[in-house]
Amino acid sequence: MIGELPQSIEVGGVNQPIRTDFRDILTIFEAFNDSELSQEEKVMVCLRIMYVDLDKMDTSLYMEAYEKAVKFINVGQEDKRENNSPKLMDWEQDEQLVFAAINKVAGTEVRTFEYMHWWTLMGYYMGIGESLFADVVNIRTKKLNHKKLEKYEQDFYKKNKDLVDLKTRYTKEELEEREEVKKLLGL
Protein backbone atom coordinates (compact mmCIF):
# COMPACT_ATOMS: atom_id res chain seq x y z
CA MET A 1 0.00 0.00 0.00
CA ILE A 2 1.24 3.49 -0.83
CA GLY A 3 2.89 5.30 2.06
CA GLU A 4 3.41 2.28 4.29
CA LEU A 5 6.78 1.04 5.46
CA PRO A 6 7.07 -2.76 5.22
CA GLN A 7 7.59 -4.67 8.44
CA SER A 8 7.54 -8.11 6.83
CA ILE A 9 8.51 -9.86 3.63
CA GLU A 10 6.48 -12.61 1.97
CA VAL A 11 8.63 -15.72 1.59
CA GLY A 12 7.10 -19.00 0.44
CA GLY A 13 3.64 -17.47 0.71
CA VAL A 14 4.09 -16.50 4.37
CA ASN A 15 4.68 -12.97 5.69
CA GLN A 16 7.94 -13.16 7.61
CA PRO A 17 8.60 -10.39 10.18
CA ILE A 18 11.84 -8.53 9.50
CA ARG A 19 14.18 -6.15 11.28
CA THR A 20 13.83 -2.78 9.57
CA ASP A 21 15.95 -0.39 11.63
CA PHE A 22 18.69 1.23 9.56
CA ARG A 23 21.36 0.00 12.00
CA ASP A 24 20.44 -3.62 11.20
CA ILE A 25 20.89 -2.99 7.48
CA LEU A 26 24.21 -1.23 8.06
CA THR A 27 25.34 -4.28 10.03
CA ILE A 28 24.47 -6.40 6.99
CA PHE A 29 26.61 -4.05 4.87
CA GLU A 30 29.51 -4.57 7.27
CA ALA A 31 29.22 -8.32 6.67
CA PHE A 32 28.98 -7.82 2.89
CA ASN A 33 32.23 -5.82 3.05
CA ASP A 34 34.04 -8.33 5.28
CA SER A 35 36.72 -9.92 3.12
CA GLU A 36 37.13 -12.71 5.69
CA LEU A 37 33.59 -14.03 5.09
CA SER A 38 32.68 -16.33 2.20
CA GLN A 39 29.71 -15.46 0.00
CA GLU A 40 27.64 -18.16 1.76
CA GLU A 41 28.52 -16.71 5.16
CA LYS A 42 27.53 -13.23 4.00
CA VAL A 43 24.16 -14.55 2.83
CA MET A 44 23.58 -16.27 6.18
CA VAL A 45 24.51 -13.13 8.13
CA CYS A 46 22.03 -11.18 6.03
CA LEU A 47 19.28 -13.73 6.62
CA ARG A 48 19.96 -14.01 10.37
CA ILE A 49 19.87 -10.25 10.83
CA MET A 50 16.93 -9.56 8.52
CA TYR A 51 14.46 -12.30 9.46
CA VAL A 52 13.19 -12.36 13.03
CA ASP A 53 12.07 -16.00 12.78
CA LEU A 54 14.69 -17.42 10.43
CA ASP A 55 15.00 -20.59 12.53
CA LYS A 56 11.32 -21.35 11.80
CA MET A 57 11.78 -20.91 8.04
CA ASP A 58 12.35 -23.95 5.84
CA THR A 59 15.94 -23.86 4.57
CA SER A 60 14.67 -24.51 1.03
CA LEU A 61 13.28 -20.94 1.14
CA TYR A 62 16.59 -19.29 2.03
CA MET A 63 17.49 -18.26 -1.53
CA GLU A 64 14.07 -16.65 -2.04
CA ALA A 65 14.39 -15.03 1.38
CA TYR A 66 17.83 -13.65 0.49
CA GLU A 67 16.70 -12.25 -2.87
CA LYS A 68 13.74 -10.56 -1.20
CA ALA A 69 15.98 -9.21 1.58
CA VAL A 70 18.22 -7.63 -1.05
CA LYS A 71 15.15 -6.15 -2.73
CA PHE A 72 14.07 -4.68 0.63
CA ILE A 73 17.56 -3.25 1.16
CA ASN A 74 17.29 -1.70 -2.33
CA VAL A 75 14.10 0.06 -1.17
CA GLY A 76 11.81 -2.29 -3.09
CA GLN A 77 13.85 -2.38 -6.31
CA GLU A 78 15.42 -5.45 -7.90
CA ASP A 79 19.22 -5.63 -7.53
CA LYS A 80 20.46 -4.53 -10.95
CA ARG A 81 24.09 -3.99 -9.99
CA GLU A 82 26.74 -5.99 -11.72
CA ASN A 83 28.86 -7.92 -9.22
CA ASN A 84 32.05 -6.24 -10.38
CA SER A 85 30.66 -2.72 -10.73
CA PRO A 86 32.88 -0.25 -8.89
CA LYS A 87 31.60 1.32 -5.69
CA LEU A 88 31.18 5.06 -5.38
CA MET A 89 30.61 5.07 -1.64
CA ASP A 90 31.22 2.91 1.38
CA TRP A 91 28.95 3.16 4.39
CA GLU A 92 31.80 2.38 6.79
CA GLN A 93 34.47 4.60 5.29
CA ASP A 94 32.07 7.44 4.48
CA GLU A 95 30.02 7.19 7.67
CA GLN A 96 30.68 10.70 8.96
CA LEU A 97 30.20 12.32 5.54
CA VAL A 98 27.01 10.37 4.81
CA PHE A 99 25.40 11.04 8.17
CA ALA A 100 26.33 14.73 8.07
CA ALA A 101 24.53 14.97 4.72
CA ILE A 102 21.55 12.89 5.88
CA ASN A 103 21.27 14.93 9.08
CA LYS A 104 21.22 18.11 7.02
CA VAL A 105 18.30 16.77 4.96
CA ALA A 106 16.48 15.44 8.05
CA GLY A 107 17.14 18.57 10.08
CA THR A 108 18.26 16.47 13.04
CA GLU A 109 20.83 13.89 14.12
CA VAL A 110 19.15 10.68 12.95
CA ARG A 111 21.57 8.38 14.80
CA THR A 112 20.09 9.48 18.12
CA PHE A 113 16.68 8.04 17.20
CA GLU A 114 15.90 4.81 18.98
CA TYR A 115 14.42 3.46 15.75
CA MET A 116 14.30 4.62 12.14
CA HIS A 117 13.04 2.46 9.29
CA TRP A 118 15.66 1.76 6.63
CA TRP A 119 13.45 3.21 3.90
CA THR A 120 13.03 6.44 5.88
CA LEU A 121 16.80 6.79 6.17
CA MET A 122 17.14 6.06 2.45
CA GLY A 123 14.55 8.74 1.71
CA TYR A 124 16.80 11.24 3.48
CA TYR A 125 19.82 9.78 1.67
CA MET A 126 18.14 10.26 -1.71
CA GLY A 127 17.46 13.88 -0.79
CA ILE A 128 21.13 14.71 -0.30
CA GLY A 129 22.04 17.76 -2.32
CA GLU A 130 25.11 19.92 -2.10
CA SER A 131 27.39 18.56 0.58
CA LEU A 132 30.93 17.40 1.19
CA PHE A 133 29.70 13.84 0.66
CA ALA A 134 28.22 14.76 -2.75
CA ASP A 135 31.48 16.49 -3.71
CA VAL A 136 33.52 13.41 -2.75
CA VAL A 137 31.23 11.07 -4.72
CA ASN A 138 31.35 13.44 -7.70
CA ILE A 139 35.16 13.35 -7.73
CA ARG A 140 35.13 9.55 -7.37
CA THR A 141 32.72 9.33 -10.31
CA LYS A 142 34.87 11.57 -12.51
CA LYS A 143 38.02 9.63 -11.64
CA LEU A 144 36.29 6.31 -12.30
CA ASN A 145 35.11 7.54 -15.71
CA HIS A 146 38.50 9.09 -16.49
CA LYS A 147 37.01 12.58 -16.73
CA LYS A 148 39.09 15.66 -16.09
CA LEU A 149 38.71 17.22 -12.67
CA GLU A 150 38.15 20.95 -12.42
CA LYS A 151 41.05 22.90 -10.88
CA TYR A 152 39.27 23.25 -7.52
CA GLU A 153 38.48 19.49 -7.58
CA GLN A 154 42.15 18.69 -8.30
CA ASP A 155 43.20 20.88 -5.36
CA PHE A 156 40.61 19.25 -3.10
CA TYR A 157 41.70 15.77 -4.19
CA LYS A 158 45.39 16.48 -3.56
CA LYS A 159 44.60 17.64 -0.02
CA ASN A 160 42.02 14.93 0.73
CA LYS A 161 43.08 11.73 -1.05
CA ASP A 162 42.38 9.70 2.09
CA LEU A 163 38.82 11.04 2.11
CA VAL A 164 38.18 10.50 -1.60
CA ASP A 165 39.96 7.24 -2.38
CA LEU A 166 38.01 4.17 -1.34
CA LYS A 167 40.19 1.85 0.65
CA THR A 168 40.73 -1.72 -0.48
CA ARG A 169 39.91 -4.35 2.10
CA TYR A 170 42.28 -7.30 2.20
CA THR A 171 41.87 -10.68 3.82
CA LYS A 172 44.27 -11.64 6.59
CA GLU A 173 46.09 -13.92 4.15
CA GLU A 174 46.42 -11.13 1.57
CA LEU A 175 47.84 -8.78 4.21
CA GLU A 176 50.36 -11.41 5.29
CA GLU A 177 51.32 -12.00 1.65
CA ARG A 178 51.81 -8.27 1.08
CA GLU A 179 54.06 -8.07 4.15
CA GLU A 180 56.14 -10.99 2.85
CA VAL A 181 56.57 -9.26 -0.52
CA LYS A 182 57.62 -6.04 1.24
CA LYS A 183 60.22 -7.97 3.25
CA LEU A 184 61.56 -9.62 0.10
CA LEU A 185 61.83 -6.22 -1.59
CA GLY A 186 63.42 -4.64 1.49
CA LEU A 187 60.59 -2.17 1.97
Which keywords apply here?
mainly alpha; two-stranded antiparallel ribbon; 2 strands; 4% strand; 187 residues; 9 helices; globular
Structural write-up:
- The protein is mainly alpha-helical.
- It has nine helices and two strands; from the N terminus they run ββααααααααα.
- It has a domain at 8-73.
- It has helices at 22-32, 39-50, 62-73, 95-106, 118-126, 132-144, 151-159, 161-164, 172-185, and strands at residues 8-11, 14-17.
- α1 (22-32) packs antiparallel against α2 (39-50) and α2 (39-50) crosses α3 (62-73).
- The relative contact order is 0.11.
Question: What's the helical proportion of residues?
Answer: 40-55%
- Strand order in the sheet with the most strands: 1-2
Beta-strand percentage?
under 5%
Structural class: mainly alpha
Evaluate the radius of gyration.
19 Å
How far apart are the first and last residues' alpha carbons, in Å?
61 Å
In terms of per-residue confidence, which ranges show pLDDT below 50 for 5 or more consecutive residues? none
Short description:
With 187 residues, the chain is mainly α.
What topology emerges from the helices and strands here?
Elements: E1 8-11, E2 14-17, H1 22-32, H2 39-50, H3 62-73, H4 95-106, H5 118-126, H6 132-144, H7 151-159, H8 161-164, H9 172-185
Antiparallel strand pairs: 1-2
Helix pairs in contact: 1-2, 2-3
